[in-house]
């Protein structure tokens, strides 16, 4: 399954060179990135030299085996890594699927090339295409999926350490994952900032929504510069919190669940190699992804996922849609009825809230129209 409400492929950490005016005086991000690079190299050399333990935790490399492990009580720190595949059933297109992906349908914006719509330099000169696209994909128009609510259940049961998402649609938040539960690796629409380095005033989701749906190009109230949602464009660094959090989270992970991503976008894709050698990894996707690179394997650097070889001992691939995979796992865990009830309840709540908002908007529009068409009151005689 192709990536994304996630952003495109050239966000490789080493390839991103922020413009001088965008660069922060705080060096914590660079330090964190450097530390994680060193951790990654240590893991590679450890693998090549055969160092470290590789205990088999699952009794069977199947979804049933994963379910038994979760139900054993030994699984207390689950990390979910997710991409666009968890949101496609909500009606949000991914980026790269031929014919249906976002990049295949951008001709109407007259871009020099499809990726330009998320290129920071192009955006500063030509913001109109991005905001036109934002009207089509804006958060609040879609409901979270079964997969989103499955992660909420993991949180409610106290076994979700964190969700690392490539998506920018905020559906994890709508489903009930809060700020501390989430690492939005490619940013989010949830907040926006003035692009001027000297200003950087923050704006809310509601402020940005009002601007976008009134066909206004959002401009800063303070300095009149462009205001951009806090999603990561080409030419921008990933959030510093991505690098600092993964150093803490992945060594403690005792089950990694990867859903709806092709694991092609770096540095996000490399996270699968940062868990311990004993940590089981479950992929729920429409196709196998993140497997060992044959060339790297020749040098002993088998850090990818291994589903099929004789040496496979911890990786499980469940080939299905993300929703079907989560329902199947919930069924094996004895949670299926609870999950279905949660989805039904939350969707009803969202529908009710939407109906109230539309009724309020219609009432306001009717009152405005009535006021405009009412005859003028007669003047009092002097």
From TrEMBL:
> What is any one of the record's Gene Ontology cellular component terms?
nucleus
Which key words tag this protein in UniProt? Metal-binding, NAD, Nucleus, Transferase, Zinc
What CDD domains would the database entry show?
SIRT1 (cd01408)
- Primary place of residence? nucleus
Q: How is the cofactor bound?
A: Binds 1 zinc ion per subunit.
Q: Return the annotated region ranges for Disordered.
A: 1-34, 346-382
> Has UniProt tagged this entry with the keyword Metal-binding?
yes
Q: Where is the composition biased (Basic and acidic residues)?
A: 1-12, 346-361
User: A GO term (biological process) for this protein?
Assistant: regulation of multicellular organismal process
| Domain of life according to the entry | Eukaryota
Q: What is its EC number?
A: 2.3.1.286
Catalysed reactions, as listed in the record: N(6)-tetradecanoyl-L-lysyl-[protein] + NAD(+) + H2O = 2''-O-tetradecanoyl-ADP-D-ribose + nicotinamide + L-lysyl-[protein]; N(6)-acetyl-L-lysyl-[protein] + NAD(+) + H2O = 2''-O-acetyl-ADP-D-ribose + nicotinamide + L-lysyl-[protein]; N(6)-hexadecanoyl-L-lysyl-[protein] + NAD(+) + H2O = 2''-O-hexadecanoyl-ADP-D-ribose + nicotinamide + L-lysyl-[protein]
According to the UniProt entry, which residue ranges have a biased composition of type Acidic residues?
13-34
Q: Which GO terms describe its molecular function?
A: histone deacetylase activity, NAD-dependent; NAD+ binding; NAD-dependent protein demyristoylase activity; NAD-dependent protein depalmitoylase activity; zinc ion binding
Q: Where, by residue number, does NAD(+) bind?
A: 84-88, 94-96, 166-169, 261-262, 285-287, 322
Q: Where is the Deacetylase sirtuin-type domain?
A: 56-336
Please name the InterPro entries in this protein's record. DHS-like_NAD/FAD-binding_dom, NAD-dep_sirtuin_deacylases, Sirtuin, Sirtuin_cat_small_dom_sf, Sirtuin_class_I, Ssirtuin_cat_dom
Q: Work out whether the entry's keyword set contains Metal-binding.
A: yes
Provide the residue positions that the database annotates as binding Zn(2+): 194, 199, 220, 223
According to its UniProt record, which cofactors does this protein need?
Zn(2+)
Q: Name one Pfam family in it.
A: SIR2
Described function: NAD-dependent protein deacetylase.
Write out the similarity annotation. Answer: Belongs to the sirtuin family. Class I subfamily.
Q: What is this protein called?
A: NAD-dependent protein deacetylase
Question: Which organism does this sequence originate in?
Answer: Oreochromis niloticus (Nile tilapia)
Q: Which gene encodes it?
A: SIRT2
